[in-house]
From TrEMBL:
Keywords: Hydrolase. The gene is mtaD. It holds the Pfam family Amidohydro_1. Residues 62-420 form the Amidohydrolase-related domain. This is 5-methylthioadenosine/S-adenosylhomocysteine deaminase.
């Protein structure tokens, strides 16, 4: 048998495939050529099939599919993260207008470029190879350029609202402008086979989008094989607004508009009535749970959240990091433990289900299930090499349980997208990280100064 020449062979590693059988090879091998996986299985079987230009000794590695972040703000938060006091209540509209919006709206185009690079670096170094952005980018070209520099895969969107203040004419004009901008952005960044960055019609959600904008976003997504995403119901305030202004609950209203479906992803949904949960299940909507945002924001998920029940009913459930910490590995035990405790049931959200949420479930929501999310021949070579020679992973007895309950992103040694090594020995292969950190610090300081906001600290900070 003649060995087939390929670009890369990782051999001797523990390979968690996330394939249909969820096979785990303790002495496995992964073969990559032309950006795609061409072989995976026991080391002896795979190694004899291929002759690689580069071979990596993986005996101290755990290989997983690249992680997929279902919801993250790559602008607005990265350059001002931690500046806002953690006692600010988002439900207070005055506090929201004072502390949140100025941090987003004060970003220049260059700020969003730097912010996107910083977010992409943070995600890659934690093993995230693909993400769905939260729809709060104002300068789409600059943000896309920043992501492209780092090489990460993403679906992003232009900040889209479209509900005008005041009279009906204002509402119509705001909707028309929002739809036109959304269509232009989607046209400029189509999901080309070789392009890692594409634009979707992403909505801010809550009560900020007019019915016309919702319907236009869904129509655009359907026509172009894209997805739609929006925030909804982290607090009861969304429910209260929809009941007062439409006579029904948020998900009921979206169902009446005809904008639900399996290409729609809704984030948070911490407060759902029975009828809303049933509509989500029937329509095949994807749901994103952001555990850190929920706990820090006091959404009440332990009491009101239905994520375990939605998942059990067949909802495609993802995890998202939102705007605080992109280490999605830290969020898996947080997401699981919250509901184990709330339900007093240890069978809720087992470790293997957590790993599904950040791999194959994410790929499905992004319409990329045939391309990423598992390590299988024919799929894109998006994978992560975790350092197994760490205290939390030795002795290595149960790779999935230990990755979920004991490990975090600090153990990510290398990250690959389309067979390109973007993180090698814990550092970016594409940029000067130290230069980016200096640039981000300067941008953050200047941005905060422009907002006119002042740091509030219970302890004295002396310059």
């Amino acid at each position: 048998m003649t060995a087939k020449p390929i670009e890369l062979l990782v051999q001797g590693a523990t390979v968690i495939t996330m394939d249909r059988e969820r096979r785990i090879f303790l002495d496995g091998a992964l073969a990559v050529d032309a950006g795609r996986i061409v072989g995976v299985g026991p080391r002896g079987e795979v190694a004899e099939q291929f002759s690689a230009r580069r071979t990596i000794d993986g005996r101290d590695l755990i290989v997983t599919p690249g992680f997929i972040n279902g919801h993250v703000h790559i602008t607005g938060d990265p350059l001002t993260r931690g500046f806002m006091p953690d006692t600010i209540d988002y439900r207070d509209s005055e506090a929201f207008l004072h502390w949140v919006l100025p941090r987003y709206l004060s970003h220049t185009a260059q700020d969003e470029h730097v912010s996107a690079k910083l977010a992409a670096l943070e995600m890659l170094r934690c093993g995230i190879t693909c993400f769905l952005e939260a729809g709060t980018i104002r300068h789409i070209d600059e943000a896309a350029a920043g992501l492209t520099e780092l090489g990460i895969r993403a679906r992003i969107g232009l900040w889209t609202e479209g509900r005008g203040a005041g009279d009906d004419v204002g509402s119509v004009q705001a909707s028309d402008a929002a739809i036109a901008a959304m269509e232009a952005a989607v046209t400029a960044y189509p999901p080309d086979e070789n392009a890692r960055i594409a634009v979707w019609p992403l909505l801010v959600g809550h009560n900020t989008n007019s019915d016309a904008v919702w319907q236009a976003a869904k129509a655009i997504a359907d026509a172009r094989n894209l997805g739609v995403s929006a925030h909804m119901s982290p607090y009861l305030s969304d429910t209260e607004w929809y009941l007062e202004n439409t006579g029904c609950r948020p998900i009921e209203h979206l169902a009446r508009l005809g904008v639900l479906g399996d290409n729609v992803t809704l984030t948070h949904l911490a407060h759902l009535a029975d009828v809303e949960a049933e509509l989500l299940i029937q329509s095949g909507v994807n749901v994103v749970y952001c555990p850190l945002a929920a706990l820090k924001g006091a959404f009440g998920v332990a009491r009101s959240g239905r994520y375990p029940e939605l998942a059990a009913a067949g909802i495609n459930l993802l995890l998202g990091t939102d705007g605080y910490d992109c280490d999605i590995m830290r969020l898996m035990p947080m997401a699981s433990g919250t509901f184990k405790d709330a339900r007093e049931d240890l069978s809720v959200f087992p470790a293997h289900q957590m790993l599904e949420m950040i791999t194959i479930n994410g790929a499905r929501a992004l319409g990329l299930a045939d391309e990423i999310g598992s390590i299988e021949p024919g799929k894109r070579a998006d994978f992560v090499c975790h350092d197994a020679n760490r205290p939390e992973l030795r002795p290595l007895l149960n790779p999935v349980n230990q990755l979920v309950w004991s490990a975090d992103g600090r153990g990510v040694r290398s990250v690959w997208v389309d067979g390109e090594c973007l993180i090698d020995n814990y550092r970016s292969t594409r940029i000067d990280e130290d230069a980016l950190f200096r640039e981000a610090q300067a941008a953050g300081d200047a941005l905060v100064a422009r907002t006119g906001l002042h740091l509030q600290s219970p302890w004295p900070i002396i310059r």
